[in-house]
Amino acid sequence: MSNTSMNVSVIGTGYVGLGTAALLAHLGHQVTGIDIDNQKIEQLRNGQVPIHEPGLDALLESVKGNLDWSTSYDSVARADVVFICVGTPPGKDGTPDLQYVASAAEKLAPHLNGHAQVIVNKSTVPIGTGDYVQRLLEDHAPGYSHERHRVVSNPEFLREGTALQDSLYPDRIVLGGHPDALQIMARLYAPLIEQTFTPPASAPRPETYTRPAVVNTTLQSAEMIKYAANAFLALKISFANEIAGLCERVGADIEEVATGIGMDTRIGRRFLNAGAGWGGSCFGKDTAGLISAGREHNYNMPILQAAIDVNTRQRQVIIDKLIRHMRSLKGKRVTVLGMAFKPDTDDLRNAPAHDLIARLYQLGATVTAHDPIAMPRARREWAHLTYREASSVQDALHRADAVIIATEWQEYRDLDWSALLPSMRGCVIIDARNIIRTPIDAHVEQIGRNAPAAVPVTR
Ligand SMILES: NC(=O)C1=CN([C@@H]2O[C@H](COP(=O)(O)OP(=O)(O)OC[C@H]3O[C@@H](n4cnc5c(N)ncnc54)[C@H](O)[C@@H]3O)[C@@H](O)[C@H]2O)C=CC1
Ligand SMILES: O=C(O)[C@H]1O[C@H](OP(=O)(O)OP(=O)(O)OC[C@H]2O[C@@H](n3ccc(=O)[nH]c3=O)[C@H](O)[C@@H]2O)[C@H](O)[C@@H](O)[C@@H]1O
């Protein structure tokens, strides 16, 4: 252990908590991961990772000497830094539900003692939550002192599926709070800021990577940076989807348009992929959260509302394309390829496939679904949906009338359609992620493209 090693407690072992714990342990700190979910803690103690995240199991295994898992908050008493990484799901009207943050603050407070401690909000929280957590600590910590117990906002920018790369090689580290507390955070993150750690085998450093920028700011600005970043990315995707709809109508191609505008460094090509629209646990929640903050201050946010509306419409665009080809879906066999909201994760939260399966069933179709990783989770979380689970892509496509590609898994990018099509009853493919790149003998519909992938159907 290096002499700059610190003691850290990480509250919440979801995507962000596990990412944070793995990162800090890899930087040489002593980390205790805390969760109220007994089953998760039991799994982690047994070396099992409760989520699918590439490379995470290998990294956790390699740093297990620096890691401990617990359902108790006792480790907080010896921690230099305590991270809050619990969920902030949307409540009524999109207002984030802070009950888990409040409960974490109330539970950790009695363990604060004379030891210098920084309490870090890593959860995405409404602007003003840092002050709220500080008040909760004041109310529940007998030995509370303003000088020794500071709240810092350190928002997380990792993406699921690439969490390790994003955590180890970030563009920027945003820190909001009192300068004394930010100094402690700078010490904690020193090997990350200086990039002096040894890159783990499961997440090598990209060749072109340079050190992250550090943004030292106030609590409020740090909290706002997180929301504004997610809202802007969501907006970018909705912009691409809106332009894609017009591309289809005027004979342009969104892929070429995105490349053309993305070459302007002021715009950038990333997050301009048209398709099924955004899913996942954060873009919907955080755009709604910002709108609700605006509402609280009697301030309209029409751009964000439009981004949400375009995203909602995008799911119907896919169904409309299918109906245009099939007329009625009654009695038709429709296959959905991809259930997770994006590749390389088994997270099903707000996945486009959920709404597609529900709508197809409602329209009378017999639905079959497949996902390389997320099917066991869907069995538990989507028990309310009616669909047949396919054991393989071949099984999923067997005697299908139509197929919708809802997630761009590599396995689906690599499919040999000429070998698969003969086993299908029909030949309609709605490629809602624009991944088919070579002409195939089927009715192929993509988003914002004039089906350059398709050739006239001969069957
Ligand atoms: N999922 C993602 O990719 C990202 C999420 N975020 C934000 O980070 C926060 C956490 O998100 P996820 O990791 O996805 O959440 P999650 O829902 O996967 O995990 C939250 C964990 O916190 C635990 N928990 C709840 N209350 C607790 C308490 N009082 N004490 C201890 N553990 C408790 C839950 O049992 C659960 O294991 C959210 O605010 C989210 O918006 C930010 C960036 C990326
Ligand atoms: O706050 C969060 O939770 C995180 O939200 C997103 O990360 P994530 O939701 O894990 O995944 P993304 O890669 O951003 O994809 C989100 C959704 O947008 C869709 N998307 C993404 C990019 C694109 O060009 N087009 C598009 O439709 C994806 O398919 C997916 O459904 C942000 O990218 C992270 O920076 C942020 O930390």
Mind describing the biggest β-sheet?
Answer: 6 strands, parallel
Percentage of residues in DSSP E strands? 5-15%
Cα-based radius of gyration, to the nearest Å: 24 Å
What coarse outline follows from CA principal-axis ratios? elongated
Helix fraction by DSSP (H/I, runs of at least 4): 25-40%
CATH topology group of the largest domain: Rossmann fold
Low-pLDDT runs of 5+ residues are none
Question: How are the strands ordered across the major sheet?
Answer: 3-2-1-4-5-6
Structure annotation, total helices:
17
The CATH class of the largest domain turns out to be: Alpha Beta
CATH superfamily of the largest domain: NAD(P)-binding Rossmann-like Domain
Task: Provide the list of bound ligands, each named once.
Answer: 1,4-dihydronicotinamide adenine dinucleotide, uridine-5'-diphosphate-glucuronic acid
Mean pLDDT across every amino acid position: 95
What is the structural class?
alpha/beta
